[in-house]
Amino acid sequence: MALKLDDVRAAREMLREVVVPTPLVHSRVLSEAIGGPVFLKCENLQRTGSFKIRGAYVRIARLSEEERAGGVVAASAGNHAQGVALAASMLGCKATVFMPQGAPLPKVAATRGYGAEVRFPGPTVDHCLEAARKYADKCGAVFIHPFDHPDVVAGQGTIGLEILEQRPDVRTIVGAVGGGGLMSGIAGAVKAALEEAGRPAVKVLGVQAKRAAAFPPSLAAGRPTKIEIQPTMADGIAVGRPGDLTYDLVSELLDAVVTVTEESISQALLLCLERAKQVVEPAGAAGVAALLEHSYAVRTPVVAVLSGGNIDPLLLSKVLRHGLAGAGRYLVVRCRLNDRPGALVTLLSELAGMGVNVLDVMHERVAARLHVEEAEVLMHLETRGSDHSEEVLGRLREKGYTLTLS
Known about the structure:
Layout: H1 5-15, E1 24-26, H2 28-34, E2 38-42, H3 52-61, H4 65-69, E3 72-75, H5 79-91, E4 95-98, H6 105-113, E5 117-119, H7 125-139, E6 142-143, H8 150-166, E7 172-176, H9 181-197, E8 203-209, H10 215-221, H11 244-253, E9 256-260, H12 262-274, H13 286-293, E10 302-306, H14 313-326, E11 330-338, H15 343-353, E12 357-364, E13 374-382, H16 386-398, E14 402-405
Parallel strand pairs: 2-10, 3-4, 3-6, 4-5, 7-8, 7-10, 8-9
Antiparallel strand pairs: 1-2, 11-13, 11-14, 12-13
Helix pairs in contact: 1-8, 3-5, 3-8, 5-6, 8-9, 9-11, 12-13, 12-14
Protein backbone atom coordinates (compact mmCIF):
# COMPACT_ATOMS: atom_id res chain seq x y z
CA MET A 1 0.00 0.00 0.00
CA ALA A 2 1.30 3.45 -0.88
CA LEU A 3 0.72 6.10 1.78
CA LYS A 4 -1.35 8.82 0.10
CA LEU A 5 -0.59 12.43 0.88
CA ASP A 6 -4.30 13.27 0.79
CA ASP A 7 -4.90 10.76 3.60
CA VAL A 8 -2.28 12.44 5.77
CA ARG A 9 -3.71 15.88 5.03
CA ALA A 10 -7.20 14.64 5.90
CA ALA A 11 -5.82 13.20 9.15
CA ARG A 12 -4.26 16.54 9.96
CA GLU A 13 -7.57 18.33 9.56
CA MET A 14 -9.20 15.73 11.81
CA LEU A 15 -6.49 16.30 14.45
CA ARG A 16 -6.42 20.11 14.28
CA GLU A 17 -8.38 20.56 17.52
CA VAL A 18 -7.06 17.37 19.13
CA VAL A 19 -3.26 17.43 19.13
CA VAL A 20 -0.67 20.07 19.93
CA PRO A 21 1.61 21.25 17.08
CA THR A 22 4.79 20.41 18.96
CA PRO A 23 7.79 22.76 18.89
CA LEU A 24 11.00 22.30 16.93
CA VAL A 25 13.91 23.19 19.23
CA HIS A 26 17.47 23.93 18.09
CA SER A 27 20.17 21.88 19.84
CA ARG A 28 23.46 23.74 19.99
CA VAL A 29 25.39 20.84 21.54
CA LEU A 30 24.27 18.36 18.86
CA SER A 31 24.83 20.91 16.11
CA GLU A 32 28.42 21.37 17.26
CA ALA A 33 28.91 17.61 17.58
CA ILE A 34 27.92 16.77 13.99
CA GLY A 35 28.95 20.02 12.31
CA GLY A 36 25.57 21.37 11.19
CA PRO A 37 22.15 22.47 12.45
CA VAL A 38 20.22 19.91 14.52
CA PHE A 39 16.64 20.39 15.70
CA LEU A 40 14.52 18.34 18.08
CA LYS A 41 10.86 17.67 17.24
CA CYS A 42 9.37 17.55 20.73
CA GLU A 43 6.58 14.98 20.57
CA ASN A 44 7.40 14.31 24.23
CA LEU A 45 5.36 17.49 24.80
CA GLN A 46 2.36 16.09 22.92
CA ARG A 47 -0.89 15.22 24.70
CA THR A 48 -0.42 11.90 26.57
CA GLY A 49 3.34 12.48 26.37
CA SER A 50 3.93 10.92 22.94
CA PHE A 51 2.97 10.96 19.26
CA LYS A 52 0.62 7.98 19.68
CA ILE A 53 -2.54 10.07 20.17
CA ARG A 54 -2.29 11.11 16.51
CA GLY A 55 -2.70 7.66 14.97
CA ALA A 56 -5.02 6.34 17.68
CA TYR A 57 -7.47 9.22 17.30
CA VAL A 58 -7.58 9.00 13.50
CA ARG A 59 -8.17 5.24 13.62
CA ILE A 60 -11.00 5.43 16.16
CA ALA A 61 -12.58 8.53 14.61
CA ARG A 62 -12.89 6.70 11.28
CA LEU A 63 -14.85 3.82 12.83
CA SER A 64 -18.59 3.73 12.28
CA GLU A 65 -20.90 4.60 15.17
CA GLU A 66 -21.86 0.93 15.38
CA GLU A 67 -18.20 -0.10 15.65
CA ARG A 68 -17.48 2.50 18.33
CA ALA A 69 -20.52 1.33 20.29
CA GLY A 70 -18.85 -2.08 20.66
CA GLY A 71 -15.75 -0.48 22.16
CA VAL A 72 -12.09 -0.69 21.21
CA VAL A 73 -9.22 -2.82 22.46
CA ALA A 74 -5.46 -2.25 22.25
CA ALA A 75 -2.13 -3.74 23.31
CA SER A 76 0.76 -1.54 24.32
CA ALA A 77 3.76 -1.04 26.58
CA GLY A 78 2.30 2.33 27.49
CA ASN A 79 2.25 5.16 24.96
CA HIS A 80 -0.22 3.62 22.49
CA ALA A 81 -2.29 2.61 25.52
CA GLN A 82 -2.60 6.23 26.60
CA GLY A 83 -3.31 7.41 23.06
CA VAL A 84 -6.12 4.89 22.63
CA ALA A 85 -7.53 5.60 26.09
CA LEU A 86 -7.68 9.36 25.52
CA ALA A 87 -8.97 9.09 21.95
CA ALA A 88 -11.69 6.66 23.02
CA SER A 89 -12.79 8.92 25.86
CA MET A 90 -12.94 11.93 23.52
CA LEU A 91 -14.98 9.95 20.97
CA GLY A 92 -17.31 8.41 23.54
CA CYS A 93 -16.42 4.72 23.39
CA LYS A 94 -15.18 2.14 25.86
CA ALA A 95 -11.50 1.16 25.74
CA THR A 96 -9.83 -2.00 27.08
CA VAL A 97 -6.05 -2.03 27.03
CA PHE A 98 -3.70 -5.00 27.51
CA MET A 99 -0.32 -4.00 28.94
CA PRO A 100 2.74 -6.10 29.82
CA GLN A 101 3.30 -7.16 33.40
CA GLY A 102 5.84 -4.72 34.76
CA ALA A 103 4.76 -1.85 32.47
CA PRO A 104 5.94 1.52 33.84
CA LEU A 105 3.58 2.60 36.62
CA PRO A 106 3.10 6.19 35.33
CA LYS A 107 1.92 4.79 31.97
CA VAL A 108 -0.48 2.39 33.66
CA ALA A 109 -1.86 5.12 35.92
CA ALA A 110 -2.27 7.54 33.02
CA THR A 111 -4.05 4.94 30.88
CA ARG A 112 -6.52 4.28 33.68
CA GLY A 113 -6.82 8.01 34.26
CA TYR A 114 -8.06 8.45 30.69
CA GLY A 115 -10.84 5.96 31.44
CA ALA A 116 -9.55 2.68 29.98
CA GLU A 117 -9.77 -0.72 31.63
CA VAL A 118 -6.25 -2.16 31.92
CA ARG A 119 -5.37 -5.86 31.91
CA PHE A 120 -2.01 -7.62 32.24
CA PRO A 121 -1.90 -10.92 30.27
CA GLY A 122 1.86 -11.55 30.18
CA PRO A 123 5.40 -10.13 30.27
CA THR A 124 5.74 -8.85 26.67
CA VAL A 125 3.90 -6.74 24.12
CA ASP A 126 3.54 -9.86 21.95
CA HIS A 127 1.57 -11.55 24.76
CA CYS A 128 -0.61 -8.44 24.93
CA LEU A 129 -1.23 -8.39 21.19
CA GLU A 130 -2.38 -12.02 21.27
CA ALA A 131 -4.68 -11.38 24.25
CA ALA A 132 -6.11 -8.23 22.66
CA ARG A 133 -6.97 -10.04 19.42
CA LYS A 134 -8.67 -12.85 21.35
CA TYR A 135 -10.66 -10.29 23.34
CA ALA A 136 -11.71 -8.54 20.12
CA ASP A 137 -12.91 -11.83 18.61
CA LYS A 138 -14.81 -12.77 21.76
CA CYS A 139 -16.37 -9.41 22.67
CA GLY A 140 -16.77 -7.70 19.29
CA ALA A 141 -14.52 -4.77 20.18
CA VAL A 142 -12.43 -3.24 17.37
CA PHE A 143 -8.73 -3.97 17.71
CA ILE A 144 -6.68 -0.77 17.40
CA HIS A 145 -3.27 -1.91 16.22
CA PRO A 146 -0.37 0.20 17.52
CA PHE A 147 1.19 0.59 14.07
CA ASP A 148 -0.01 -1.79 11.35
CA HIS A 149 -3.02 0.09 9.95
CA PRO A 150 -3.30 2.81 7.26
CA ASP A 151 -5.23 5.21 9.51
CA VAL A 152 -2.62 4.90 12.26
CA VAL A 153 0.23 5.49 9.82
CA ALA A 154 -1.57 8.51 8.29
CA GLY A 155 -2.05 10.00 11.76
CA GLN A 156 1.63 9.64 12.61
CA GLY A 157 2.49 11.12 9.21
CA THR A 158 1.05 14.47 10.29
CA ILE A 159 4.31 15.00 12.19
CA GLY A 160 6.11 15.07 8.86
CA LEU A 161 3.90 17.87 7.54
CA GLU A 162 4.60 19.90 10.69
CA ILE A 163 8.35 19.38 10.27
CA LEU A 164 8.26 20.65 6.68
CA GLU A 165 6.39 23.78 7.75
CA GLN A 166 8.70 24.42 10.69
CA ARG A 167 11.95 23.62 8.87
CA PRO A 168 11.48 23.69 5.07
CA ASP A 169 15.23 23.18 4.47
CA VAL A 170 15.45 19.92 6.46
CA ARG A 171 17.68 17.34 4.76
CA THR A 172 17.53 14.44 7.23
CA ILE A 173 14.83 13.23 9.61
CA VAL A 174 15.74 10.60 12.18
CA GLY A 175 13.56 8.85 14.75
CA ALA A 176 12.74 5.70 16.63
CA VAL A 177 11.30 2.60 14.98
CA GLY A 178 9.42 -0.08 16.90
CA GLY A 179 6.73 -1.48 14.65
CA GLY A 180 7.45 1.20 12.04
CA GLY A 181 4.27 3.30 12.03
CA LEU A 182 5.87 6.57 13.11
CA MET A 183 8.78 6.80 10.71
CA SER A 184 6.98 5.24 7.73
CA GLY A 185 4.20 7.81 8.22
CA ILE A 186 6.67 10.68 8.46
CA ALA A 187 8.70 9.44 5.48
CA GLY A 188 5.63 8.91 3.31
CA ALA A 189 4.16 12.33 4.09
CA VAL A 190 7.41 14.26 3.70
CA LYS A 191 8.60 12.58 0.52
CA ALA A 192 5.18 12.84 -1.14
CA ALA A 193 4.84 16.52 -0.20
CA LEU A 194 8.31 17.35 -1.51
CA GLU A 195 7.72 15.42 -4.72
CA GLU A 196 4.45 17.29 -5.25
CA ALA A 197 6.28 20.59 -4.75
CA GLY A 198 9.12 19.58 -7.09
CA ARG A 199 11.70 19.79 -4.31
CA PRO A 200 14.56 17.39 -3.50
CA ALA A 201 13.71 14.50 -1.21
CA VAL A 202 15.00 14.31 2.36
CA LYS A 203 16.86 11.39 3.90
CA VAL A 204 14.85 9.48 6.51
CA LEU A 205 16.60 7.23 9.03
CA GLY A 206 14.89 4.83 11.41
CA VAL A 207 16.55 3.84 14.67
CA GLN A 208 16.16 0.65 16.69
CA ALA A 209 17.67 -0.46 19.98
CA LYS A 210 20.32 -3.06 19.16
CA ARG A 211 18.73 -5.48 21.64
CA ALA A 212 15.32 -5.26 19.96
CA ALA A 213 16.08 -4.68 16.28
CA ALA A 214 13.66 -6.67 14.13
CA PHE A 215 13.87 -4.49 11.01
CA PRO A 216 17.51 -5.08 9.92
CA PRO A 217 17.10 -8.90 9.71
CA SER A 218 13.64 -8.48 8.19
CA LEU A 219 14.94 -6.14 5.49
CA ALA A 220 17.83 -8.52 4.82
CA ALA A 221 15.41 -11.45 4.51
CA GLY A 222 12.97 -9.54 2.31
CA ARG A 223 10.00 -10.19 4.61
CA PRO A 224 8.87 -9.48 8.20
CA THR A 225 10.92 -11.71 10.47
CA LYS A 226 10.32 -12.41 14.15
CA ILE A 227 13.26 -12.09 16.55
CA GLU A 228 13.82 -12.83 20.22
CA ILE A 229 13.96 -9.51 22.04
CA GLN A 230 16.69 -8.99 24.62
CA PRO A 231 16.07 -6.75 27.64
CA THR A 232 16.33 -3.07 26.68
CA MET A 233 15.61 0.18 28.46
CA ALA A 234 13.84 1.32 25.27
CA ASP A 235 10.69 -0.70 26.01
CA GLY A 236 8.55 1.55 23.81
CA ILE A 237 10.22 0.25 20.63
CA ALA A 238 10.80 -3.35 21.72
CA VAL A 239 8.72 -5.04 19.00
CA GLY A 240 9.63 -8.58 17.98
CA ARG A 241 8.20 -8.52 14.45
CA PRO A 242 7.48 -5.68 11.99
CA GLY A 243 3.91 -5.33 10.78
CA ASP A 244 3.11 -6.45 7.25
CA LEU A 245 2.00 -2.97 6.21
CA THR A 246 4.75 -1.10 7.99
CA TYR A 247 7.42 -3.50 6.70
CA ASP A 248 6.39 -2.65 3.14
CA LEU A 249 6.35 1.08 3.88
CA VAL A 250 9.67 1.09 5.74
CA SER A 251 11.42 -0.94 3.04
CA GLU A 252 10.09 1.44 0.39
CA LEU A 253 10.34 4.82 2.10
CA LEU A 254 13.16 4.80 4.66
CA ASP A 255 16.73 5.26 3.49
CA ALA A 256 18.14 3.08 6.27
CA VAL A 257 17.40 1.57 9.66
CA VAL A 258 20.33 1.78 12.08
CA THR A 259 20.78 0.34 15.57
CA VAL A 260 22.06 1.97 18.76
CA THR A 261 23.48 0.57 21.99
CA GLU A 262 22.04 0.91 25.48
CA GLU A 263 25.00 3.15 26.34
CA SER A 264 24.18 5.54 23.49
CA ILE A 265 20.52 5.64 24.49
CA SER A 266 21.36 6.48 28.09
CA GLN A 267 23.82 9.19 27.02
CA ALA A 268 21.21 10.61 24.62
CA LEU A 269 18.62 10.72 27.38
CA LEU A 270 21.10 12.51 29.66
CA LEU A 271 21.92 14.99 26.90
CA CYS A 272 18.23 15.73 26.28
CA LEU A 273 17.60 16.35 29.96
CA GLU A 274 20.76 18.25 30.80
CA ARG A 275 21.38 20.28 27.65
CA ALA A 276 18.00 20.53 25.88
CA LYS A 277 15.86 20.56 29.08
CA GLN A 278 13.62 17.85 27.61
CA VAL A 279 12.36 14.91 29.69
CA VAL A 280 12.44 11.99 27.26
CA GLU A 281 11.95 8.24 27.71
CA PRO A 282 14.68 5.91 26.37
CA ALA A 283 12.75 5.00 23.20
CA GLY A 284 12.05 8.68 22.61
CA ALA A 285 15.77 9.46 22.72
CA ALA A 286 16.71 6.85 20.09
CA GLY A 287 16.98 9.45 17.33
CA VAL A 288 19.46 11.48 19.38
CA ALA A 289 21.39 8.29 20.16
CA ALA A 290 21.69 7.70 16.42
CA LEU A 291 23.22 11.14 15.96
CA LEU A 292 25.80 10.28 18.64
CA GLU A 293 26.61 6.90 17.04
CA HIS A 294 25.95 7.44 13.33
CA SER A 295 26.58 11.13 12.61
CA TYR A 296 28.27 10.11 9.33
CA ALA A 297 24.88 8.96 8.00
CA VAL A 298 23.09 12.32 8.13
CA ARG A 299 23.01 15.50 6.08
CA THR A 300 22.23 18.77 7.87
CA PRO A 301 19.92 20.39 8.77
CA VAL A 302 18.74 17.38 10.77
CA VAL A 303 15.49 16.91 12.69
CA ALA A 304 15.51 14.24 15.40
CA VAL A 305 12.07 13.23 16.61
CA LEU A 306 11.73 12.96 20.40
CA SER A 307 8.88 10.50 20.17
CA GLY A 308 7.90 10.21 23.83
CA GLY A 309 8.52 11.48 27.34
CA ASN A 310 6.67 9.02 29.57
CA ILE A 311 9.43 7.70 31.79
CA ASP A 312 9.12 6.18 35.24
CA PRO A 313 11.04 8.38 37.73
CA LEU A 314 12.82 5.32 39.14
CA LEU A 315 13.93 4.27 35.67
CA LEU A 316 14.99 7.85 34.96
CA SER A 317 17.29 7.85 37.98
CA LYS A 318 18.85 4.53 36.89
CA VAL A 319 19.29 5.60 33.28
CA LEU A 320 20.80 8.93 34.30
CA ARG A 321 23.38 7.13 36.45
CA HIS A 322 24.06 4.83 33.48
CA GLY A 323 24.49 7.86 31.23
CA LEU A 324 26.75 9.63 33.72
CA ALA A 325 28.88 6.50 33.97
CA GLY A 326 29.09 6.25 30.19
CA ALA A 327 30.19 9.88 30.05
CA GLY A 328 32.87 9.24 32.68
CA ARG A 329 31.13 11.38 35.29
CA TYR A 330 30.03 8.64 37.68
CA LEU A 331 32.40 6.09 39.20
CA VAL A 332 31.74 3.11 41.42
CA VAL A 333 35.06 2.12 43.01
CA ARG A 334 36.17 -0.43 45.60
CA CYS A 335 39.26 0.70 47.51
CA ARG A 336 41.42 -1.31 49.98
CA LEU A 337 42.60 0.48 53.13
CA ASN A 338 44.71 -0.33 56.13
CA ASP A 339 42.22 -0.84 58.98
CA ARG A 340 43.47 1.84 61.32
CA PRO A 341 41.98 5.06 62.75
CA GLY A 342 41.90 7.92 60.26
CA ALA A 343 42.44 5.82 57.11
CA LEU A 344 38.99 6.57 55.70
CA VAL A 345 39.28 10.27 56.55
CA THR A 346 42.61 10.40 54.71
CA LEU A 347 41.07 8.78 51.61
CA LEU A 348 38.07 11.12 51.60
CA SER A 349 40.37 14.12 52.05
CA GLU A 350 42.37 13.02 49.00
CA LEU A 351 39.15 12.86 46.97
CA ALA A 352 37.98 16.25 48.23
CA GLY A 353 41.30 17.77 47.27
CA MET A 354 40.79 16.53 43.69
CA GLY A 355 37.31 18.05 43.44
CA VAL A 356 35.43 14.73 43.62
CA ASN A 357 31.91 14.62 45.04
CA VAL A 358 31.44 11.49 47.19
CA LEU A 359 27.82 10.39 46.82
CA ASP A 360 27.87 7.23 48.94
CA VAL A 361 30.31 5.16 51.02
CA MET A 362 29.96 1.58 52.32
CA HIS A 363 32.67 0.42 54.74
CA GLU A 364 33.46 -3.30 55.14
CA ARG A 365 35.95 -4.86 57.56
CA VAL A 366 35.02 -8.55 57.68
CA ALA A 367 35.19 -10.52 54.41
CA ALA A 368 37.07 -13.62 53.26
CA ARG A 369 38.89 -11.63 50.58
CA LEU A 370 40.34 -9.18 53.15
CA HIS A 371 43.35 -9.64 55.38
CA VAL A 372 42.87 -9.05 59.10
CA GLU A 373 44.53 -5.63 58.91
CA GLU A 374 42.54 -4.53 55.84
CA ALA A 375 39.23 -2.82 55.23
CA GLU A 376 37.44 -2.04 52.00
CA VAL A 377 35.18 0.85 51.02
CA LEU A 378 32.70 0.89 48.15
CA MET A 379 32.34 4.48 46.92
CA HIS A 380 29.97 6.15 44.46
CA LEU A 381 31.81 9.17 43.08
CA GLU A 382 30.79 12.08 40.85
CA THR A 383 33.53 13.56 38.67
CA ARG A 384 33.78 16.23 35.98
CA GLY A 385 34.24 13.80 33.07
CA SER A 386 36.41 11.04 31.64
CA ASP A 387 39.69 12.95 31.91
CA HIS A 388 38.99 13.89 35.52
CA SER A 389 38.05 10.28 36.34
CA GLU A 390 41.33 8.98 34.91
CA GLU A 391 43.23 11.64 36.86
CA VAL A 392 41.48 10.64 40.10
CA LEU A 393 42.14 6.92 39.62
CA GLY A 394 45.77 7.54 38.69
CA ARG A 395 46.36 9.78 41.73
CA LEU A 396 44.86 7.24 44.13
CA ARG A 397 46.98 4.43 42.70
CA GLU A 398 50.08 6.63 43.06
CA LYS A 399 49.16 6.99 46.72
CA GLY A 400 49.26 3.22 47.07
CA TYR A 401 45.54 2.43 47.11
CA THR A 402 44.33 -0.82 45.52
CA LEU A 403 41.31 -0.03 43.36
CA THR A 404 38.66 -2.12 41.63
CA LEU A 405 36.06 -0.54 39.34
CA SER A 406 32.52 -1.89 39.77
